[in-house]
TrEMBL record, chain A:
One GO BP annotation of this record: maturation of SSU-rRNA
Key word Cell cycle present: no
Protein function: Component of LSm protein complexes, which are involved in RNA processing and may function in a chaperone-like manner, facilitating the efficient association of RNA processing factors with their substrates. Component of the cytoplasmic LSM1-LSM7 complex, which is thought to be involved in mRNA degradation by activating the decapping step in the 5'-to-3' mRNA decay pathway. Component of the nuclear LSM2-LSM8 complex, which is involved in splicing of nuclear mRNAs.
The protein's name in its UniProt record: U6 snRNA-associated Sm-like protein LSm6
Swiss-Prot/TrEMBL keywords: Cytoplasm, mRNA processing, mRNA splicing, Nucleus, Ribonucleoprotein, RNA-binding, rRNA processing, Spliceosome, tRNA processing
Compartments reported by the entry: Cytoplasm; Nucleus
Keyword flag Transcription: no
InterPro entries for the chain: Lsm6/sSmF, LSM_dom_sf, Sm, Sm_dom_euk/arc
This protein's GO CC annotations: nucleolus; P-body; sno(s)RNA-containing ribonucleoprotein complex; spliceosomal complex; U4/U6 x U5 tri-snRNP complex; U6 snRNP
SMART domains (alphabetical): Sm
Gene Ontology molecular function: RNA binding
Residues in Sm domain copies: 13-82
Family from the record: Belongs to the snRNP Sm proteins family. SmF/LSm6 subfamily.
UniProtKB/TrEMBL annotation, chain B:
InterPro entries attached to this UniProt entry: LSm5 (IPR033871), LSM_dom_sf (IPR010920), Sm (IPR047575), Sm_dom_euk/arc (IPR001163)
Protein name, as recorded: LSM complex subunit LSM5
Main location: nucleus
GO cellular component term, pick one: U6 snRNP
Sm domain segment(s): 10-82
An individual GO BP term: mRNA splicing, via spliceosome
GO molecular function: RNA binding
Keyword tags: Acetylation, mRNA processing, mRNA splicing, Nucleus, Ribonucleoprotein, RNA-binding, Spliceosome
């Protein structure tokens, strides 16, 4: 590790993880506590997320379903592989 | 005088040393996570494995593998197992 640079070549960093879980079923939790479960279609560098077959959970209770959903990245707390 | 560069450990280098080991993440607000650090980026977005999410209400949620947004991270404790062990 020269010049204090952080080594992230293992493919285990955030972008490596994202490419690994594209197409999988995921859980996305927002800062508000609302949870979206669906099939991860795509993510970008802002953590904007496109989901398919999405279910929305508020306080653990299923509220609504969406065929396609876009979540703006600034609201995302975490993306979990199911 | 600045310390010799060999004795200076930059914050992100400390986190880099934690890759592969358990880490305790304290968020802004009341939420906390503990898990095995798999990787992270310049924004300190982090990939964690075998994660426990600690709620403000004391609830625990187990998660296999997550990408945690660095935006709301406040503090990182290497080797920490969360508020239970502390």
């Amino acid at each position: 590790m020269e010049n204090g640079a952080v080594s992230q070549s293992e493919g285990k960093d955030p972008s490596g993880f994202l490419s690994e879980i594209i197409g999988n079923s995921v859980t996305v939790k927002l800062n508000s506590g609302v949870v979206y479960k669906g099939e991860l279609q795509s993510v970008d560098g802002y953590m904007n997320i496109a989901l398919e077959k999405t279910d929305e959970y508020v306080n653990g209770v299923k509220r609504r379903s969406y065929g396609d959903a876009f979540v703006r990245g600034n609201n995302v707390m975490y993306i979990s592989a199911d | 005088m600045a310390a010799p560069s060999t004795s200076q450990l930059l914050p992100l280098e400390l986190i880099d040393k934690c890759v592969g080991s358990r880490i305790w993440v304290v968020m802004k607000g009341d939420k906390e996570f503990s898990g095995t650090l798999v990787g992270f980026d310049d924004y300190v977005n982090m990939v964690l494995e075998d994660v426990t999410e600690f709620d403000y209400s004391g609830n625990h949620t187990k998660l296999a593998k997550i990408l945690l947004n660095g935006n709301n991270i406040c503090m990182l404790i290497p080797g920490g197992e969360g508020p239970v062990a502390a």
